[in-house]
Amino acid sequence: QMADPFLYDTGERSKYGCLGHEVQIEHIKAYVCRPSFFTDKAVIVVHDIFGWQFPDIRYIVDLIAGHGYITICPDFFKGTDPWKTTDHWADFADWMKDHDPVKVDKEADVVLTYLKEQCDAKKIGIVGFSWGGMAVHHLMLKNPQLTAGVSLYGIIRDSEERYNLLNPTFFIFGEKDHTISYDQITLLEEKLKQYCKVAYKIKVYPGQVHGFAQLKPEDMKPDDKPYIEEARKDMIDWIKMFI
Question: How far apart are CA 61 and CA 72, in angstroms?
């Protein structure tokens, strides 16, 4: 049986009143939050295994929108059930087979078209968390329309082509994440140095576990708060540098 990779209890979270609204784009539902002024800059947020309706991910969407971006979190699970806190980790591998984070290209294309044609977006970035971090890593290798990416504690493993990033990508990790070993981060760093032709950055945040950067302020532990805030500022700064 697989160890529970999430060291936080997702069941005991504060509620969150969202600032945005839901839309239907072709076969996908999405949550969108816009800044109060016109902008032609957009950011796609890729949710983790808990899906596009999870309050923490909507909080992140609203946070990024507050920095002046049309921000959208599509349902990359296309209406199928996300992972639930009541599910058993023994079934996780099977669940992942039906929810492959490197098979998101069609949905990404649908959302990119929507952002360009319906929202007049000229520059589009992407950030993703955990499952979404793997999806971002994949899309930054495949989709030149994405100007910059931030992959938070998601890493494509066992693939020779995972280092030829098309556009600037920032990889964020927690030091105490027991789903991603330090060896994997070191390998990523070595190989990017060797193969990557665009700007990239890797940063590991001390003492932080998997999922640390999504927490809403009231759910943060005081010791973690500075690192969470730093990771989020770093994420926004990376986006602002390129978009």
Answer: 7
Q: What is the pLDDT of residues 221-238, one digit of tens each?
A: 999 999 999 999 999 999
The two tokens of residue 179 are: 């789903």
Phi then psi dihedrals of residue 87, to 5 deg: -70, 160
Task: Return the residue matching tokens 């890493």.
Answer: 155
The DSSP output letter for 173 is E
The enclosing H or E element of 140 equals helix 131-142
Q: Environment class of residue 203 by beta-carbon count within 10 Å: exposed (0-12), middle (13-18) or buried (19+)?
A: middle
Helix (H) or strand (E) holding 73: strand 70-74
Q: Is residue 7 situated within a structural domain? A: no
CATH code, 100: 3.40.50.1820
Q: How far apart are CA 47 and CA 214, in angstroms?
A: 10
pLDDT in tens, 133-184: 999 999 999 999 999 999 999 998 888 789 999 999 999 999 999 899 999 9
